[in-house]
Amino acid sequence: MQPLKGLTVVTLEHAIAAPFATRQLADLGARVIKIERPGSGDFARGYDERVHGLASHFVWTNRSKESLTLDVKHPEAATILERLVMEKADVVIQNLAPGAAARLGIGYEKLSAAKPGLIVCDISGYGDDPINPGPYRDKKAYDLLIQSEAGFVSVTGTPDEPCKAGPSIADIAAGMYAYSSILAALLQRGQTGKGQRIDISMLESLAEWTSYPLYYAFEGAAPPPRTGASHATIYPYGPFPTGDGSMVMLGLQNEREWASFCETVLQRPALTADPRFTANFKRVAARDALRGIIVEAFSSLTRAQVVERLELAQIANAQVNTMNDVWAHPQLKARGRWTEVGSPMGPLPAMLPPGTWDVGPRMDPVPALGQHTDAILAELGYGAAEIEALRASKAV
Q: I want to staple 70 with a disulfide (CB 3.0 to 4.6 A). Which of 28, 77, 117, 318 is the partner?
């Protein structure tokens, strides 16, 4: 049996952060009921049409869920939502605007008074704590804006231009902390019988992920430089061109590897005694000179020849892969990481979530908008005529 089988999550979600958290709960077997706007649904459904007419973002974050359409501002829909939470939910998740859940009658204080074991997870840009709201509580927040606000952009890119991360890293960070916090809350509920409120801030999530560069602000120190795809504080650690027009990524972590790199890869063992390069911090300071030496050595070699030397020297290295390369990656294929999930457009490839356990992850279809509305309403006791009336009134 999957670890979360038997648990029900009711989620008012859109975009990436909350959907990514709930998809991972669904991977572990939880039943996830996704509430969407009638007619349009989660706006991530329209981000692109890359996957046989479906949005790539939506396909990635919404498999194994049930889609229920509700106009949550409609009086009859509000009753349905309250019943759904009270009768079915173990966990409620929402990433609406701060304060919106309370206005809809699904704030933690109201819900927990009636259902003390309920876990409620609120995700927002800057946190939604009524006791400590902070000056940014009501500020709009999207992924790129949080990447900028958290300082991530300032340490990413080239010396000439800051860059964002390719994926929606602020959303993903918030989704990961929501997911892990919910798992912790479920464990605690198993011990105490009590639920709790979880307040996830995208800013706080990405500020934590900004990691060691944040400590460069300690005592007013200068920030680490932007160095493109190279490491800011370890060298050589980054991409280098080869003589056949390719690129190889390599990284050194200690002086033993530096000596091996000089002797076997560069075939210049005397460099280990060069006073410019006798410690990592010195190599970082002299990175331009050292890069010139490495590029010159690689200029007469193909990528395959460079990799052969790196492997012989036991120096970590990697290909600079495109998305097409990753899609066809031999290691992912060898480990059986690809499978298929259903969708409104038929079977689609999907990558299994990381980690393995005795019972594999749940990999059910990506839902069509409102696909499960009638079935969920029937579970709550609504008859066919009542459901038609709700649809006619545009409540569902």
A: 77
Cα 350 off chain centre by: 16
Amino acid found at 60:
W
pLDDT tens digit sequence for 234-290 = 999 999 999 999 999 999 999 999 999 999 999 999 999 999 999 999 999 999 999
Express each pLDDT in 49-100 by its tens digit.
Answer: 999 999 999 999 999 999 999 999 999 999 999 999 999 999 999 999 998 8
Q: Let me know: does 350 contact 341? Beta carbons within 8 Å.
A: yes
Query: Would you call 244 a catalytic residue per the annotation?
Result: no
Tell me if 28 sits within 8 A of 117, measured CB to CB: no
Sign of CA dihedral 108, 111, 117, 118: negative
**CA 208 – CA 221 distance, rounded (Å):** 19
3-state SS class at 51: strand
Whether pTM exceeds 0.70: yes
What gap in Å lies between CA 184 and CA 168, rounded to an integer?
A: 24
Looking at the chain, the domain(s) classified CATH 3.30.1540.10 span 237-319
On the question of pLDDT at 370 being above 80, the answer is yes
> Can you tell me the distance from the alpha carbon of 47 to that of 56, in angstroms, rounded to the nearest whole number?
8
For 18, the token pair is: 């909350």
Which one is the CATH code of 237-319: 3.10.310.10, 3.40.190.10, 3.40.50.620, 3.30.1540.10? 3.30.1540.10
For the chain, the distance separating the N- and C-terminal CA atoms, rounded to the nearest angstrom, is 33
Domain 8-210+335-392 CATH class label:
alpha beta
Which residue out of 171, 199, 358, 364 is catalytically annotated? 171
Give how far the C-alpha of residue 313 lies from the chain's centroid of Cα atoms, to the nearest Å. Answer: 35
Residue type, 140: K
Residue 19 structure tokens: 């959907």
